[in-house]
Amino acid sequence: MHSLNAEPTHSRWNADLRPRLTIDSGDTVYFECQDASGAQVHPGMTADEFQRIDRGKIHALTGPVAIEGAERGDVLQIDVLEVRHKGWGWSSVIPGLGFLKERFAEPYLFHWDLETEVTRSLTPAVVPLRPFCGVMGVAPAEHGEFRTRPPGIFGGNMDVRELSAGATLYLPVQQPGALFSCGDAHAAQGDGEVCINGIECPADVVLRFRLHKGKELDGPLVESAAGPVVGASWVVVESASDAMVAARTATDRMIDLLIAEWGFEPVQAYLLCSVAMKLQISQVVNEPMITVAAAMEKSVLPGRRLFGV
Predict the structure, then answer these.
(1) What pLDDT digit, counting tens, does each position of 78-105 carry?
(2) What is the mean pLDDT of the segment spanning 260-286?
(3) Which of 2, 3, 214, 259 matches a 20 to 30 Å C-alpha distance to 205?
(4) pTM for the full model?
(5) Are 4 and 30 in contact (CB under 8 A)?
(6) Is the peptide bond preceding residue 128 cis, with omega within 30 degrees of 0?
(7) How far apart are CA 223 and CA 206, in angstroms?
(8) What is the rounded CA–CA span in Å between residue 147 and residue 287?
């Protein structure tokens, strides 16, 4: 068990960042994660004050963590053991951003008081809480410094709410050591994250890592825990600037997974996706990238463990 405090955070993907921690496959790490603003937002802050925060610090991530022996062509398994919020959070409207930016053009900041499992701050709604990290990723294959907003093959800012406690994320390693980072925790988020935020919050996160040598994976894959609406599922995650491209690629990858792991004929896998797969938009606000998740409930299929574990 290792421990990594938040400082210093980083808000760019960069394969040349020195790892703050090096671990072995099978190790567990506690991450202290700031809220997405990098601890600039605080309870009671006004919308005018929020307008003046340093946007360059958005997505303050904890890491990177190097995994001994990881290299391109491997798969990194990340088991989400715990994501615990700290009792407060915030959501905002930012001029020029969001899915309905023409309709909602005025700045707005809302503060949430968080109970253990729900928040009652937005009366009369009672919002269930299911904390997860909006950003979980390894360093991209390209060298240089990149903003964290667009997700990709490496994971990153996927905003897939199925990544709550009990889930497992699989990512294709892109760089020696993998160089994993996480942050941008949300106490709750709807599919789409339409206003540009979930309930942004600081969080304590516990993850376990396992390295699978020489395994192929075309992009992020999630093994989700059972949720309030959908049971435990296999979830293929794809991001693209065109939602239809992302949706088709996610469906293609789900068909390939069904063929490889359950022995379906391709046309049978296609039929199964048509009658049992949930195709959903995870986020529409990380322009230019849109993230689509294709989910197949585990109850539909015989039990499997991927990569021989």
Answers:
(1) 999 999 999 999 999 999 999 999 999 9
(2) 96
(3) 214
(4) 0.95
(5) yes
(6) no
(7) 17
(8) 12
